């Protein structure tokens, strides 16, 4: 025992490894099922995005951007995506987008129900909040370790790590949005005989949509940043280009791949923000 240690070191590392080994031994079939589902979803998104001609997707995204941010945003989208294609990063950009869409979809599917549950039950919120704090403060690289152990190398552990890292904003802001619904509106809906689900779907969720979409927006941005980090464990896409450029000290290629990531990030950010504003209108 070191002189600086007052008590003997807790074998926390051994405990964690024992737990992980036990999960792998008894729940291996579940991890295989999850891996197949996530891998299939990524492949589906990737097949769609890479199967459609680039010019058709550029036109589609430009039209969506015009609806979201009018002329300036549409012009940025058209030039930005055209630049990505010109630099030769189109296919890798679509692979990155497939990973982000998968991670974002899972974050929403899990995060919104958990956020609603927290808003409806203070005891659940007290339990979930420290877990969210842990998920958001733990260094992103740490999530790669258990993801590799349970799911191996490749896109699946990258998506899993991205979901863990990106989900908290969706849960937090869904909880916040529902709790901020004025009490008089809830009382009015109850006075008209609304059921629990009618009150939730007709009153609380519509009013909370702007706040919820802000959380989804943040989750997508975090998922994009984590997908880039996940290139270290074999996830494809622009992250792999950045990682290769860093390890080989290719500044130019790294800048090009980074620029493609920035263009995707701005496009996803503006589109998700516009959805929240339009729904609120």
UniProtKB/TrEMBL annotation:
- GO biological process: one example: glycine betaine transport
What the entry lists under InterPro entries is as follows: MetI-like, MetI-like_sf
Can you say where in the cell this protein is located? Cell membrane; Membrane
Q: Which GO terms describe its cellular component?
A: ATP-binding cassette (ABC) transporter complex
Task: Output the PROSITE patterns linked to this UniProt entry.
Answer: ABC_TM1
Single annotated GO MF? carnitine transmembrane transporter activity
Q: Which Gene3D superfamilies match?
A: MetI-like
Which residue windows are transmembrane per the record? 44-64, 71-90, 96-119, 140-167, 220-239, 251-268
SUPFAM superfamilies in alphabetical order: MetI-like
Please provide the record's keywords in A-Z order.
Answer: Cell membrane, Membrane, Transmembrane, Transmembrane helix, Transport
What residue ranges carry the coiled-coil annotation? none
State the family it belongs to.
Belongs to the binding-protein-dependent transport system permease family.
User: What protein is this chain from?
Assistant: Proline/glycine betaine ABC transporter permease
Species of provenance: Brevibacillus antibioticus
What is this organism's lineage? Bacteria, Bacillati, Bacillota, Bacilli, Bacillales
């Amino acid at each position: 025992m070191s002189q600086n240690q007052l008590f003997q070191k807790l074998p926390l590392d051994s405990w964690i490894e024992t737990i992980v080994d036990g999960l792998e031994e008894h729940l291996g079939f579940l991890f295989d099922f999850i891996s197949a589902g996530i891998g299939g979803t990524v492949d589906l998104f990737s097949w769609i995005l890479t199967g459609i001609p680039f010019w058709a997707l550029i036109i589609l995204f430009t039209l969506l951007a015009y609806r979201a941010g009018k002329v300036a945003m549409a012009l940025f989208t058209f030039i930005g995506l055209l630049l990505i294609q010109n630099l030769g990063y189109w296919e890798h950009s679509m692979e990155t987008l497939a990973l982000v869409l998968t991670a974002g979809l899972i974050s929403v599917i899990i995060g919104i129900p958990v956020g609603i549950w927290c808003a409806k039950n203070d005891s659940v919120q007290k339990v979930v909040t420290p877990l969210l704090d842990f998920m958001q403060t733990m260094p992103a690289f740490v999530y790669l370790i258990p993801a590799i152990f349970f799911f191996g190398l490749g896109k699946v552990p990258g998506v899993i790590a991205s979901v863990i890292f990106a989900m908290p904003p969706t849960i937090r802001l869904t909880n916040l949005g529902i709790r901020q619904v004025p009490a008089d509106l809830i009382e009015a809906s109850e006075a008209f005989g609304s059921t629990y689900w009618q009150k939730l779907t007709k009153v609380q969720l519509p009013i909370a949509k702007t706040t919820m979409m802000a959380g989804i927006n943040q989750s997508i941005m975090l998922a994009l940043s984590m997908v880039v980090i996940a290139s270290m464990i074999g996830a494809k896409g622009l992250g792999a280009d950045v990682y290769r450029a860093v390890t080989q000290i290719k500044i130019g290629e790294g800048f090009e791949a980074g620029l493609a990531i920035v263009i995707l990030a701005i496009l996803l950010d503006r589109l998700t923000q516009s959805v929240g504003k339009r729904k609120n209108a």
